[in-house]
Amino acid sequence: MKDKLYKLMNWPEIEAVVYGEEGCPQEILGRHNISSYTLFQTFIPDAKQVVLVTEEDDKEYTMELADEEGFYAIAVLGKIKGSYYYLVTDLHGKKRKVYDPYDYSVAIKKEDIASWNKGTMLNAGELLGSSVKTLQKTKGVLFRVWAPNAVRVSVIGDFNSWNGKTHPMMKDEETGIFSLFIPGLASGEEYKYELSIKGGTVYSKNDPYAPGNDKGNSIVEAHKSFKWEDGVYLEKNSINDRSKLPAGIYETELAGLFNEKFELNKNALDKLIASVKNLSANYVQFISEVDDAYGLMDGVNVDDMRSVVAALHKEEIGVIYNWNPCAFSMREGGLGVFDGTYLYGHMDERKRCNPALNAFNYNYGRPQVRNYLMSAAVYLMKEFHFDGLHIDALSSILYLDYGKYEGEWASNIYGGHENLDAIQFIKDFNSLIHKEFPYAITTTKEVCAFPKVTEDIKNDGLGFDLIWNNGFSEDYLNFIKGDRAFKNISLLTNGMSYEYAENYILTMSKDDVIAANDYDALRVDKGAGYFDYIPVDDKGKPAVKRATLAYMTARPGKKLIYAGQEDVKESLALGKLYKDLTAFHRLDRNPYGFEWISAIDHGDGVVAFMRKDEYLNHSILVVCNFSQNTYASYKFGMPYEGKYKEIFCSEDKKYGGKVTLAAKEKITEEEFYDGRANSLTVKIPAMSVSYYAYTPYTEEELLEIAEAKVARFKEKLEKEAKEKAKALAKKSSK
User: Fold this and answer.
1) Thinking of the domain 110-219, which architecture would CATH place it in?
2) CA 274, CA 552: separation in Å to the nearest integer?
3) 143-180 pLDDT per residue, tens
4) From the CB of residue 364, how many other CB atoms can be counted at a distance below 10 Å?
5) Exposed end of the chain (fewer CB within 10 Å): N or C?
6) Where do the H-state alpha helices sit in 437-535?
7) Which architecture does CATH list for 590-699?
């Protein structure tokens, strides 16, 4: 080696690069002006020869091997400007052109630094992660990752034989973000980050901001060129008050749309659309196994997901995506112990561990973690046009002691058990989604009766649109699984005592199906249904299923059903009735929209109620018989006189039952019964739910009724007068 070159080089730093211990590679690698020379240094472990080529004058300079591990250098007299590249001959004699990653500026803008450190960055996915860029007229991929406590971070992949010493990243001290632009890479490239932490431990991690992973690796996302044509659909759904509209949600597994190679199965998508239409549902809710908050289920292609949403929107079917901002996995390649510390979680184990989910809690008070979560939500909504996000297991983050024993949790600053940072995060999340995406809804499952979950944030609520009614699901399951269920009518009636506390969804979700199968999830994954374990023989189960679905449809609240639990023949009719009968959805949040007709347990298994909207003549009488008894003549006290036409019965022959709808309207009698001025008598089949449409009497009919009353009263008076006259005549004759 020439003496001049030897003296220009920093040998301790070179050794740090060679051994993978260099945290600031930009200080040694790349192009540096020293005295009257321009020093070029690069580390390419698989190189047999490296030639420096300056593009401005097309000159070639054969570089010297400074370290046999693959460190090359050359000092060129003068200030060499313009672009350059290395012509590398590898150990097998193959040649390739390599542009120097350390010759490209990856400085972070001041405004981005401020936003990142404050926790107000809503587009962090555009700053961090991997993105295809053109820098200094060169195409490549810019990588960025937050790992402030790591000694070294490198990008590894097939492009460098997964050697972490080849592409160490450059650290920004103000943010703790490592960056590197690698020329020549393109979308679809698989990669990971290799981190060296204090103490010498080296391991690899997936990119937290990667939208999808394949075979355990992160993938550089393809160019966002998908053509959306759903603007009219989204605009139509941008309304202020959805509580008065029907919402039928079909819950299904996202994985069911893809084959073993994670290729989109168009036949499965067509079947899904047909199933949703048969239910007359207007939303699909996708269940997907995602360890962290950002991106999609492992293996799902970004454009395939967009195609799924576009196809559903074309049929005016919305998409709700199960999002996971509650906890992150403990898996080796995930967010846990990311840079040698619990970067995304808490240092305090009492706050960090989430035993309910067997995962780690996010530290919602850390600005950079808020950036990650909020940006993940925005990314999902923008890139996939989802119509809503569902947060499961909300209780596990709202309470510091959820699933923990005394001594396993730490209280908040006021000595309470509420997670104040998580509560504020949820409020901010809902505020953000509703502001940026006015067509979107947010839903959740919360099992601890946290107050005001669906109340407006202005009224100190959490701001969700809808919440699953876990009480209804649990009570009804206990009801139908009872040996003599009709003795427990209170399980059906108690729920109305809190019905208007929240904006509820009635569910027969996958969680409910698992509960119905004694929490045997494996059994459900193999095809077990909601009604498999109820104490009714197989011949009787279809009737129970039809009655259950009809009962759910009529009760206040939006509806959600897990794929496979519907009744093919009946569900189409129920879905249409739910949409068409405004009494079934207009006043879900108004107590006027529901009235018990019969809610007292007489031991006969019968309950009845009225559903109403703003117009009395839209009212629907719902009669439920959960016993195996048929009642030929069952009487109810009615609040309104008039006519009641049977429009639906779950035991109708066309759904597989044994009866036909009553041809004639039922007319109330002027009879004081059950504390009401009128009565109605109907026939009730065993294990059935029937709907009766109410029609008030017309003026002509009321006049006829009044005239008939007068005639009867006149006849009665005349009869009484004759009897009195006859009695008087008899008395006078004596």
Assistant:
1) Sandwich (2.60)
2) 22
3) 999 999 999 999 999 999 999 999 999 999 999 999 99
4) 22
5) C
6) 470-480, 490-493, 510-516, 521-525
7) Sandwich (2.60)
CA 464, distance to chain mean position in Å, is 12
| Identity of residue 236 | K
Length of the chain: 734
Render 449-473 in DSSP notation, one character per residue: --TTTTS-GGGT----SEEE-HHHH
Q: How far apart are CA 477 and CA 489, in angstroms?
A: 12
Q: What percent of the chain has pLDDT over 70?
A: 98
Mutual angle of helices 470-480 and 541-554, in 10-degree steps: 150
Percent of the chain with pLDDT over 90: 67
Q: How far apart are CA 167 and CA 180, in angstroms?
A: 8
Q: What is the pLDDT of residues 289-304, one digit of tens each?
A: 777 888 777 778 888 8
Q: Can you tell me the distance from the alpha carbon of 487 to that of 626, in angstroms, rounded to the nearest whole number? A: 10
- Choosing among 2.30.30.40, 3.40.366.10, 3.40.50.1820, 2.60.40.10, the CATH entry for 3-103 is 2.60.40.10
Determine the average pLDDT of the residues in 184-205: 92
Q: For the chain, give every domain's residue range.
A: 3-103, 110-219, 590-699, 700-734
Residue with the two structure tokens 């299923």: 545
Least-confidence region, from 354-358, 570-574, 674-678:
354-358
CB 175 within 8 Å of CB 149? no
Rounded Cα–Cα distance for residues 613 and 616 (Å):
7
Beta-sheet strands, E only, within 496-555: 504-508
Helix axes 302-314, 266-278, angle to 10 degrees: 30
- Name the amino acid, one letter, at 213: N
The neighbour count for residue 57, using CB atoms within 10 Å, is 8
Are 42 and 31 contacting, i.e. CB atoms less than 8 angstroms apart? no
| 485 token code pair | 């269920």
**Residues 281/575, Cβ–Cβ less than 8 Å:** yes
**DSSP H helix total and E strand total for the chain:** 18, 36
Fold matches, 110-219 and 590-699: yes
Quick one: which of 3, 89, 13, 18 has its CA closest to 53? 89
Q: How far is 54 from 76, CA to CA, in rounded Å? A: 11
On the CB side of 72, CA atoms within 13 Å amount to 22
Using CA atoms, how far apart are residues 295 and 129, in angstroms rounded to an integer?
A: 11
Neighbours of 403 (CB within 10 A): 15
Residue found under tokens 């018990």:
596
What the block records as the tokens of 164 is: 């972490």
